[in-house]
Write a structure and sequence with these properties.
- It is a single chain.
- With about 300 residues, the chain is α/β, with parallel strands linked by helices.
- The chain has one domain: Ribokinase (UDP-N-acetylmuramoyl-L-alanine:D-glutamate ligase, 3-Layer(aba) Sandwich).
- The protein contains 11 helices and 13 strands.
- Strand 11 and strand 12 form a beta hairpin.
- The radius of gyration is 18 Å and the shape is globular.
Length: about 300
Amino acid sequence: MPDIVALGEPLIEFNQARADQPSSYLQGFGGDTSNMAIAAARLGARVAYATRLGNDAFGRMFVDLWTREGVDTSGVAFDQEAPTGVYFVTHGPKGHEFSYLRTGSAASRMAPSQLPDALLRAARLVHASGISQAISPSCADAVFAAIRHARASGTTVCYDTNLRLRLWPLDRARAVIHAAVALADIARPGLDDARQLTGRESPDDICDFYLGLGPRIVALTLGKDGTLVATPQERRLVPTRAVEAVDATGAGDTFDGAFLADWLRHGDPFQAAAYANAAAALKTQGLGAVAPIPHRAAVEAFLPS
């Protein structure tokens, strides 16, 4: 039985290795919910992933990756007619920039009828994101169907708002994301995205908004300022530790995986946020979305004694 089933879109990553050699790229792996699944697995959770891949070299590389990482691939299917998606990361004075080749990807063709229902029912927690729903209408429907399967089985649902306005207009994003958050137990917004989605500025007001939709836990990440964790009974600002960041790609996904893996062990969202802050900080010290994700021993050594 998996602790966590994540669903969404995996993407092959090409990350610019050095700013002074702009044509040099390192091949890696990305996709927010795939990154989260790998982070949770490295940190001790039993994880499965549900998606569709192209029947191509990149798709097979993903299956090999998840197998090495201990992520169950029984919910992964191959599409004979569509490719695995790809993205590029470049680095400059304003930080990292993403360029995507994902239109018509195999993952974007996922539909409710293709969900691994038995796997979803067996999980302790189901995780999805705004990106999982933004890539196509059928994927948006698939995520809603997965959430409803989870709720019918008494399974916890976590939803990361992860807003990407390149994929859909703000009004549609608000409607779909907030409908999904209203069905979730754990809401995982980031501050910049939440300001656009809610129209509110202060972290406390944003937490009030998301608690008002129905989740019992809101973990609002604030970048270097830490994480504001709110429940209907209590809220606390959980600080992070400063590090020399190299690449923030996938830091929020690492936070998600670490938060859920730790929360499932003890049920304390404040303790889980401290653990996830540490994991996300460590992840930013390397290049790429997946390679620098830390293992449990590294996170425990980094946490304050």
